[in-house]
Amino acid sequence: MATPTYDADDLQRRMTGAIANLRQELGGLRTGRASASLVEPVQVEAYGSMMPLNQVASVSVPEPRMLSIQVWDKSMVHAVEKAIVNSNLGLSPATEGQVIRLRLPELTQDRRKDLVKVAHKYTEAAKVAVRHVRRDGLDILKKMEKDAGLSKDDHERMADQVQKTTDQNIAEIDQLLAVKEKEILTV
User: Fold this and answer.
1) What domains are defined for the chain?
2) What is the pLDDT of residues 34-82, one digit of tens each?
3) Residues in domain Ribosome recycling factor (predicted)?
4) pLDDT digits (tens, 9 = 90+) for 80-138
């Protein structure tokens, strides 16, 4: 059996991937303001297959509480409208030719609290992913110490490096949550 190798860059890349996923999930959470990322997960049935909305239309934010979707192909307007309605975003599209406007309603205080809970859930999932990467790194170090004769001092030094990387990424996750929570609760 091949001896596993320790790669700090790979661990950092995997942790950064968890953070990137968190950013995407938090970006999809609706706050009081319109954001083009709100409609990123919408899939449109176009040309016989499912496509992301941004591949059949351009999304802009002309006002703080409105999204404007410019559909490129006139025949796709109805399909885009249908996809938005079916996406469970709670938005009602208003169509004017090839432009679809989505007005975002005001959020209630209860809905804001629910969104904060969802943000906490996403954040905890990202922290768990980072901790899994840390565990994988520490397991590799243990195997290297046992199989390849890695010295105890080197093992401890590398384990400290893994822990520092983990702590930095957890702090970044907490920072992302704090920013999103403030954004959601701001009326």
Assistant:
1) 8-27+108-185 (1.10.132.20), 33-103 (3.30.1360.40)
2) 777 778 778 899 888 888 888 899 999 888 888 899 999 899 899 999 9
3) 22-185
4) 999 888 876 777 888 998 899 988 877 788 878 888 888 899 999 999 999 999 999 99
Neighbouring C-alpha atoms within 13 Å toward the C-beta of 17: 10
| Beta strand segments in the chain, E | 43-46, 49-52, 57-63, 66-71, 93-96, 99-103
Longest CA–CA separation in the chain, Å = 70
Residue with tokens 């703080």: 64
Burial letters 41-67, b for 16+ CB under 10 A, else e: ebebebeeeebebeebbebeeeeeeeb
pLDDT above 80 for 146: yes
Give CA–CA dist 118/114, Å, rounded: 6
